[in-house]
Sequence to fold (144 residues):
Amino acid sequence: MNLFKTNKNFVAMLLVILLSACNKTKSLEESYKTDTLNVNTEFITEKNINLNQIQQIPVNTLVSKYPPLTDSTFILGKGDGVISEFRISLRNTFTEKEIENRDILIREVTWSSNKDENLTIWYEKKQHQWVLVDHFIWHKDALF
Fold:
């Protein structure tokens, strides 16, 4: 009977310790909350973007709700729209011929996604709407 009480007390103490640790983790997560598009939004987890959800929300709504670090537009491959190392993934979306033969209007929007990383999303203007075409998560200290 004494052994049962000891085991019961041990289990109860272990449960209290585990619950206490969970509360500390939760408060750490809450301390990172900001008004930027980050790990605590419904759109982004620490390393993953739910592009399906982001695609459903117009870029102007995202920009108003989560003010970006930068927001610019350019013609891809021309002037300010040169395809640098930073924008190289856009070559997977558009062929060299497309880039040369038509004026592809791109909107490049960058948010802080968490304390270490930024998120850049590229939109193409199609039929008077901005359509998501690519994204890039990159470390804030990266140099391009």
